[in-house]
Amino acid sequence: MRIDLPEDREAASEPEQASRRQFLRTGTALGAGLIIGMHLPTRAQERSRNEKPPEAAVGQAASTVAGREPGLAHNAFIRIDRDGLVTLIMHKVEMGQGTFTSIPMLIAEELEVDLSRVRLEQAPANNQLYADPLLGGQVTGGSTSVRGAFEPLRKAGAKARVVLITAAARQWNVDPATCIAENGTVRHPPSGRALGYGDLVESAAALPMPDNVPLKPASRFKLIGRPVKRLDTAEKINGKALFGIDVRLPDMLVATVAASPVVGGRLKSYDARKAMAVKGVRQVLRIENAVAVVGDHFWAARQGLMAVSPVWEDGKNGKATTRSVVSEMAAAAARKPGAVARNDGDANAKIRTAARKLAVTYEVPFLAHATMEPMNCTVKVQDDGCEIWAGTQVPTIAQGAAAKLTGLPVEKVQVHNFYIGGGFGRRLEADYVEQAVRFARQMKGRSIKFIWTREEDIRHDMYRPYYHDRIAAALDEQGRPVAWSHKVTGSSIMARFAPSAIKDGVDPDAVEGAKDMPYDIGNVRVEYLRHEPPLPTAFWRGVGPTHNIFVVESFIDELAAAAKADPVAYRGELLGKSLRLKAVLELAAEKAGWQAPLQSVPGRKTGRGVSAQFAFGSYLAQVMEVSVGPEGDVQVHRVVCAVDCGQVVNPDTVVAQIESGVNFAIPATLWSEITLDKGRVQQSNFNDYRVLRINEAPRIEVHIVKSNDAPGGIGEPGTSAAAPALVNAVFAATGKRIRKLPIGDQLKGTT
Amino acid sequence: MRKLNINGKEVQLDVPDDMPLLWALRDIAGLTGTKFGCGIAACGACTVHVDGKAVRSCVTPVAAVAGKNVTTIEAVEHDPVGRRVQHAWQQIDVVQCGYCQSGQIMAATALLKETPRPSDQQIDAAMAGNICRCGTYARIRAAIHQAAANGSKEPS
User: Fold this and answer.
1) A700 or A26: which carries more pLDDT confidence?
2) Which of A374, A506, A622, A688 maximizes the CB count within 10 A of its CB?
């Protein structure tokens, strides 16, 4: 997945794109000249830096011009003050995935500073300086953070170290090669002299940054590859960590909103007087499709919203039901040809004429993200500027959207980012920021915190798309696949998010994990048919692979069963061209005791299932053990994972992210789905949108393959590989093949 | 005006009687460590202690806690059990996004105060009301066992 922000945004043809284009040009011009290598504050600068928000401080501290080409600028990440305080600027957001530990590790490995003494600061919104090289924008998503940062941020640390050593060597009049840097200090062992980094910044800042510096070989890593405790734990266990929802500003008001329950609907009328009669309510605001009640605190706003009784005009989607949406999609999938994503040999002809074949349909539902922190955004709009306080995975998109809506130049919009109380793709969207700005620009000069209720959050998510997959294979006499045809039908997130990524009608995200399925089959055809439902869709943890790996890994299991073959051995024979994947498959099987009989669970049927996946640059295999009860309820008991994600930065983060990813996928496989009736989302809160709880969480074991290959992503693979392992285990337990998620009550009567 | 005892201090809050304790803490008292997650006592993010018992502050009106001792995450370190729980959370590296962890720690502390050596089943029963979307459950369980083990080593 690559998100090419500038061109993509231009390509969209909405009228509002004109100002977006303007923003991007301005942004580019601005980009040169903002950031820093070394910071040399005078006393006066230090004072004013403390008075300004951190974003301004970074800009103010700028002393060198960053690289012009998009990508990571090497010197925009480190600031060393005279007192030796090392501040690392975090270009990625921390939403649980551990980047506020792994990225500092990368810098500290080469900068030679004590990790426990560095200060972390959120980067300002700036695509030029902080674009992810894999995504092309300042975006935290797609399991790219460590992959994109691995080399540039070690280089950033190394360059800073080299100039500090050079500065010290000059001061001592010695050969820099005789000096070493360790623990924030440059030493000259022959003479026993030492200077702290803080004492060197003044002279170091006058030196040119070296163009190229050698990086440590893996054999000399001191931090990388070793388990390091998270740097954000301390403030996340005492209530001090600040999320967007926690921002408190002088004279701030708090608002809550109700948007049209039907997509495309409009606000017809509402009772402002009743809302204003609630004590503490200050204002009722409206935009075309939503109403907000603004009060002294959330409770007043909430009570006011209950009283405001909005009446909606539903518009053309007012009759939509899940059934209507799904049947239209299935009809399109059957009738219309898809765009060809891959075409090796002649799969369709081979399948048509085959004596032995299998052709089935898979479906996955709309899903909400249900982050623990509901959507929220605090905004202050003034005539000459706009400030936004919000947790966002896309600070520059939020900034651009606010600039467009307020008519302000982009540099007048400041985005203050925060710890994110769950992203999972939801905060790759700026819809909640845009909505807050539309309301807040009606009350200029006031800081207003907009908080969505959980009900609003679930009903106005941008959902994981519903997909309808037709998949077929022709088998030879031994049951091995000789032709494979897979047609994906569903909405295109990329067409909205990054239109230029669509090539010849193929959305690369929608076919990721399908187009590149790893099995060695001579004839392979993969098609994509775009079909848009009346619900907005967006990235959801695991993105394309979460859907496609479910289909591919379930179907290969069906083929193994048809061949009466062992699911691990069957896959292994087809993985001759992907030996790293074969290796993790075999490792997971071995660690899980694949050949050993399962422990029985009284009154329940037990089974073991497997999946193998290459996605996000990492190889992962999972073996799940489940039991199915008399009512068809499924319990996942044990999940054994083997992962080869190349060079590991923080092994404990790898383990934690696999655990997290698996636990995110289990409820989505078993229970979660978003359904529609009368155009309205029927779920509203955790009582009817079921997620995993502690009593339902399995034992998860993670085995990491040692490797010095380029790092792979780890935030999402655990999620995308889990559903097929689970349904394959259910098949092993019950003989029932699940082809439509969630499993729900499909297993009733099978045991 | 409501008089409340929050974290050992008497405070006067100008709030309506029906205001949930959660919003009195967050919006009036400025204690934002207690989180809003669902508003219907279905997720546990808002868990605080009222007289040492875990309570969902999003559905507890301030009037119901008048004259009682309210403890929030900001003060749990002053409780020896709470401090042990926080320490175990660090040892095991439980947190990810961290948004639910205030509630998890308050619920775990209340559990250990009542049941110093809980079984897995007792942990399930006490903690099933606290959702973690990052899925840190195995580590929460391990950290509770760890805090319990540390507790039996030292007098509390």
Assistant:
1) A700
2) A622
Nearest-by-CA chain B residue for A93: B97
> Do residue B43 and residue A241 have CB atoms under 8 angstroms apart?
no
Q: CA A387 to CA A250: how far, in whole Å?
A: 14
The whole-number pLDDT of residue A37 equals: 34
**Are B7 and B71 part of one and the same domain?**
yes
Cα–Cα distance measured from residue A625 to residue A640, given in angstroms and rounded to the nearest whole number: 9
Question: Do A26 and A151 lie in a common domain?
Answer: yes
State the nearest Cα–Cα gap between B121 and chain A, in angstroms: 8
CB contact under 8 A, B16 and A299: yes
Q: Domain residues for A399?
A: 244-315+375-451
Q: Which of B75, B96, B119 is the last residue of a domain?
A: B75
Whether residue B63 lies within 8 A of chain A, CB to CB, comes out as no
Q: Specify the CATH number for the domain of residue A350.
A: 3.30.365.10
Q: What are A342's strand-pairing partners?
A: A526
Q: Which of A407, A361, A415, A424 is nearest to A391 (CA)?
A: A415
Measured between CA atoms, the residue of chain B closest to residue A369 is B133
**Least confident among A201-205, A642-646, B105-109:** A201-205
Residue A746 forms part of a structural domain: no
Residues A564 and A687 occupy one common structural domain: yes
**Are B12 and B60 part of one and the same domain?**
yes
Q: Which residues in A501-517 are b (16+ Cβ under 10 Å) and which e?
A: bbeebbbbbbbbbbbeb
Residue whose C-alpha is closest to residue A398's, from A373, A428, A441: A428
Please tell me the total number of residues recorded for chain B in this structure: 156
Q: What is the pLDDT of residues A413-452, one digit of tens each?
A: 999 999 999 999 999 999 999 999 999 999 999 999 999 9
Verify that B54 and B100 share a domain, yes or no. no
Taking alpha carbons only, the member of A508, A493, A501, A496 closest to residue A538 is A493
Domain end marker among A234, A265, A295: A234
Q: Is A626 helix (H, G, I), strand (E, B) or coil?
A: strand
Query: In terms of domains, do A406 and A525 share one?
Result: no
Tokens of B143: 């950290």
Is A175 contained in some domain?
no
- Which of B6, B7, B18, B27 is most worth mutating to test chain A (most A CB atoms within 10 A of its CB)? B27
Same domain (yes/no): A49, A119: yes
Chain A residues in contact with B132 by the CB 8 A cut-off are 372, 694
- Give the closest-approach CA distance of A633 to chain B in angstroms: 18
Domain end marker among B75, B99, B132: B75
DSSP string, A252-318: -EEEEEEE-SBTT-EEEE--HHHHHTSTTEEEEEEETTEEEEEESSHHHHHHHHHHH--EEE-GGGT
Contact B107, B130 (CB under 8 A): yes
Give the integer Cα–Cα distance in Å for A414 and A392.
Answer: 13
Q: Are residues A622 and A478 in the same domain?
A: yes
**Cα A544 to Cα A1: distance, rounded to the nearest angstrom:** 9
Whether residues A360 and A387 share a domain: the answer is no
**What is the band of A5 on the pLDDT scale with cuts at 50, 70, 90?**
very low
A533 and A388 in a common domain: no
Task: Give the number of domains in chain A.
Answer: 3
pLDDT tens for each residue of A381-394: 999 999 999 999 99
* Tens-place pLDDT, residues A202-255: 889 888 888 889 999 999 999 999 999 999 999 999 999 999 999 999 999 999
Domain that holds residue B123: 76-153
Residues with Cβ within 8 Å of residue A361, at least 6 apart in sequence:
A330, A468, A469, A470, A471, A739
pLDDT at A681 exceeding the cut of 70: yes
Same domain, B59 and B15: yes
Mark which of A234, A259, A279 sits at the end of a domain: A234
ipTM at complex level: 0.98
